[in-house]
Amino acid sequence: MGIDLLPAFIRENYECHEWKHAVAILTSDFPDEWQDIIEVLTAFRFNRSWITVGGGRKSKVSEAIDSALYAKGWEEKQFQTEIVLDGRATQTPTHQIDCFKNRVALEIEWNNKDPFFDRDLNNFRLLFDLRAVSVGVIITRCDSLQEIFAGLGRGSSYGASTTHMSKLLPRINGGGGGGCPVLVFGITQNLYVED
């Protein structure tokens, strides 16, 4: 039922999956953040030129989504946590979240090594347990994009051990996010633009 709440454009242009009623929670409890996500995903396209150039610190895909969310008041966020045992505190900062706003955490994994999914899901689980995050969202690429990468001679740069949908789903189905509701969007070929 939850995926049915997504606008038609999103369902038709992204591969969408949810766990633990993430869509219902977002639409009911976080309507502003939900609207931000839908607006950014609706406007997003990925350009041929972003694939044909080599990588850097951050991909053009991640940069485009991040900057659109930052313009709507989202921010990078690292939580400062600590464990206190017998009066002795040990700092245990979390991994930095790509985009955070009002208890919604969003990560973009375009072409990182696939263990980054473990890091993201563990972060969602921990922050959900600490009541700092209510929903985790991951945006990644669909497996079918490999055809485009191969056709552009960049297939080896987007290899089997990098972040894509078939590396993420087993991790979530296996309980990687713990009790945290999770919503996943996979970027499909429909969003590819020859520029």
Describe the model.
By secondary structure, this protein is of the alpha/beta class. The strands form three sheets. A six-stranded mixed β-sheet has the order 1-9-8-7-6-3, with helices on both faces. It has helices at 8-13, 22-29, 31-43, 48-52, 60-70, 115-129, 146-151, 165-173, and strands spanning 14-19, 46-47, 75-77, 82-85, 88-91, 97-101, 104-108, 135-141, 182-187, 192-193. α2 (22-29) packs across α3. Helices cover 37% and strands 23% of the residues. α6 links the parallel β7 and β8 (135-141). The mean pLDDT is 90. It contains eight helices and ten strands. The protein is globular, with a radius of gyration of 17 Å.
* Biggest sheet record: 6 strands, mixed
Detail the poorly predicted runs. none
What overall geometry do the principal axes of the alpha carbons give?
globular
- Kindly report how far apart the N and C termini lie: 37 Å
Number of strands: 10
Strand residue content:
15-25%
Written as H for each helix and E for each strand, in order along the chain, the element string is: HEHHEHHEEEEEHEHHEE
Please identify the structural class as seen in this structure.
Answer: alpha/beta
Oligomer state of the chains in this structure: single chain
Strand order of the largest sheet: 1-9-8-7-6-3
The number of helical segments is 8
Name the helicity range.
25-40%
Mean pLDDT: 90
Spatial extent as radius of gyration:
17 Å
